[in-house]
Every structure is written in structure tokens, then in C-alpha cells.
Amino acid sequence: MTTSEAGFDFTGLKVSARDAEYIIHSILSHDRVNGEWFKDPDNDLVDRVKKAAYRMGAQPLESQDKDIVEMNSKQKVALMKMKELIEPLANDLSSLGFDWEYMTWKIGVSLPVGRLHVNVNETDLRLFLVTEMDSEQLSYLTSMPWRNLALKNRKSLNILKDELLPVLIKLKELVF
To answer: pTM for this one?
Structure first.
């Protein structure tokens, strides 16, 4: 049976369970709905929790639950597709001063106008931008058809894979 990551083991670390929970709650505080409930408008809550757990030295736990195995398998395939796209651009991104990172199944890019998330689809890329700029202004300044999403400050755009670097450069040059 296949196993997959299901949580983290903090045994033997210098971080107490209380401290680990406090750190993770601090990271997620701006998304708290109530008590232990958090909204995930950018679909990156799992990435943030995993990153915090790894930085504290926690080790991943394995699960044989078929739903967890299937979800992690899909995330690994998506991350592999993302790396195939990004690795050839990594040197250019670094030399141009982009602050970017791999997440569970996408990349995140910090820009002057907001935070960009890039997802790989079968035939194109889906960009999600968290910004105060409205989609009309963004479309005008970039000459691209940005759309407003249901959540405030969320914009989206589909582009071809070879358009990613030029789009990132345009977005980086915007001043808000």
C-alpha cells in the first residue's frame, strides 16, 4: 500500500507543542475565522503550515489513507510540471531580482503590486494576483485581460507558458 505525508512529528525538538501551535497560529492569524478555523483565500494555507513545520525541524508523518495519498500524488505531479517550467527560468528570475518560491503545487512571487501565485494547467498558466489594484487598471497597465475574482483584491489571468517571464517583468515594473 502507498503511504503519503499526513502531518508532522515534533517529538524530540526544542519547540514545545504549545510553541509550535502558537507559531503556526501567528502565521495564520490574519486568516482566522474563529478559534481553530481559518479561511484560505489564496489556497496556500497548507503550504504555509508545512513551511513552518519544516523550519521548526518537524518530520513528516506518513498515511495510508487513499484520499491523502491521492491528493499528495496530484500535488507532486503539479509541482513536477511547475519545476519543468520554472527551472529553465530560475537564473533569469534570480538575476532580475525576483523574490519567488516553490509551494506545494505552484510558485509564489512577491511583486511591488502584490503577491502572485502561478498554477500550471494542461495547456497554459493561471495567474492569481492579490493586489489593491483593480482589474481594469491592471489590464490597462499590462495590456492583458485581468479578471476580478469573487474575493476582494484577487485577480486572475491565463497566459501561455512562454509568456511568463515577460508578464513577470511587466508586473515588477508597475508602481502602485
So the answer is: 0.65
